[in-house]
Amino acid sequence: MKKEEILEMSRKENKNKDIYETQIEAKGCTYASVMMLILATFYYCYEIFTSKGQNYSFYSIIALYCSVLYGYKAIKLEKRRKFHIFVSIIWGLVTILSIVQYFR
Q1: What DSSP string describes the chain?
Q2: How far is CA 47 from the centre of its chain?
Q3: 0.70 cut: is pTM over it?
Q4: Rg, the chain, Cα only
Q5: Are 101 and 54 in contact (CB under 8 A)?
Q6: What's the chain's average pLDDT?
């Protein structure tokens, strides 16, 4: 096979998506979720220390995002599958507890 044929087959297989760009987007999502958690924790602590109460609804949304993200990784990736399942379950429990606290 010639180089051009291999390149054309790869483009058809990847539907003209850049693999490097896809990996960067995935890593960006991970960093974004971590930053969302840090910001949510900051808001959460601020509300506790200023006696404004606790905003469990905001924290439940962030936890749900992380649970779905790691659950999707567990389904799609073979590498570190057990770790992703474990983290997804933990975030799922945090989501459920936050929702329960919100409605209490």
Answers
A1: --HHHHHHHHHHHHTT--HHHHHHHHHHHHHHHHHHHHHHHHHHHHHHHTTS---HHHHHHHHHHHHHHHHHHHHH-STTHHHHHHHHHHHHHHHHHHHHHHH-
A2: 25
A3: no
A4: 19
A5: yes
A6: 82
The pLDDT assigned to 44 comes to: 77
pLDDT at 93 over 90: yes
The pLDDT score that the predictor gives to residue 17 is: 64
CA distance 43 to 34: 14
How much is the pLDDT for 61?
84
Q: From the CB of residue 9, how many other CB atoms can be counted at a distance below 10 Å?
A: 11
CA distances for 51 relative to 44, 57, 59, 93, angstroms: 11, 17, 17, 26
Domain limits, the chain: 3-103
Q: What CA dihedral angle connects 87, 69, 63 and 31, to 10 degrees?
A: 100
**Distance, CA of 75 to CA of 62 (rounded, Å):** 20
- How far apart are the C-alpha atoms of 21 and 13, rounded to whole Å? 16
